[in-house]
Amino acid sequence: MDDVTEERERSDTRTRLVVATAALLQRQGYEGTSIKRILKEAGATYGSLYHFFPHGKEELAAEALRFGADDFARLLREGLASSPDPAEAVAHCARLLAETLRDSDWTDGCPVAATALEIIGRSPLIQSASDEALKQWRGMIEARLTEGGVPGARAAALACTVLSALEGAELLCRVSGDDEPLRFAGEQLAVLVRANA
Amino acid sequence: MDDVTEERERSDTRTRLVVATAALLQRQGYEGTSIKRILKEAGATYGSLYHFFPHGKEELAAEALRFGADDFARLLREGLASSPDPAEAVAHCARLLAETLRDSDWTDGCPVAATALEIIGRSPLIQSASDEALKQWRGMIEARLTEGGVPGARAAALACTVLSALEGAELLCRVSGDDEPLRFAGEQLAVLVRANA
DNA sequence: GAAAGACTAGATCGATCGATCTAGTGGGAG
DNA sequence: CTCCCACTAGATCGATCGATCTAGTCTTTC
């Protein structure tokens, strides 16, 4: 058995735990996700969990949020690269997000929102993982806007508002079971980006 | 004892339960809020709870969300009425929200977001109460924009995006412990409203 | 092939979950 | 007074929570 395979097998259970936890946190938040459910979905046992994550559920959740954040960053990267026009690129992000949500029965959206909102002020570990994710996405959008010709002074404020609108629109979509809010957001954000050019 | 006082006393415990639940749901979501904690905060017992809400926690939560929604509607109403200019009025909503959040240590924001996100697809009762709240707020913003001169065709999309941006910016503020996202949102939404006039 | 260390299996712990239940209390109606 | 009914009090239920613990099974190393 070569080193690469060994590495993969050694971390296989750990990866399954992180992936399963990320999916569950996204759908039902932190308190709504029990360890036993995670173990069942991941096909793991308590022994493995506390071997890889000695601090238990909280440590696993923080890691799962980082994993989910990278996933969401990929979707954002794809959307932002979809057009030479930054306004059109932002609009495409909204379309991609709407599509992903619709195809998953309104479950697969922002991987941190549900968990972050309910643990604010009660778990520094999870909160800072959430904060880093949001700041990473803000940075990606800001870089794309700057590159697209938005003056640096406005790029930060605009990027932050783009992310806010996408996050909020996703909330409205998921609650109503309708992608209208994200369609509206895409259209209006394109207008806003052009107004900042 | 006259009828009015009698009515108030009769529903006193019920009201305390609803108020306490609304505050807890806003801060820590549905699964993170135990019945025993609610009873303690409200100064009530199981007997009273299941007398007023035979279907238990879920029924109480739905009622608490409706209560919180009216509270948030008042803040929105105040902001929307603060200026004859709709762009300035929207910006003031963002300021009011930022102020309320800061003054409460980042806990008192949207009363439904945390709870709604974690129960989506698992409690029709709570989800529809959340949906109604969001639609009520959208309607208020849309009416103000239309009255302020935004063409009817665009008012709905703009109002929806304003609410989305406020909700998302609040998430970013609470997670980061910084009101910057709401300041940015207020500034950018004013630009967007003017672009739609 | 013995020893060591990485990892897995799952029973079990005390605490707490939401819910149910019986036993009340107290004020108004007849 | 007596009866009734809205309401309160809180013990108790089985289930499940997150966490710990012992007892393993592999793989690698010498």
From TrEMBL, chains A, B:
It comes from the Bacteria. This is TetR/AcrR family transcriptional regulator. InterPro entries: Homeodomain-like_sf, HTH_TetR, Tet_transcr_reg_TetR-rel_C_sf, YxaF_TetR_C. Residues 11-71 form the HTH tetR-type domain. Keywords: DNA-binding, Transcription, Transcription regulation. Residues 34-53 bind DNA. The keyword DNA-binding applies. Pfam families: TetR_C_13_2, TetR_N.
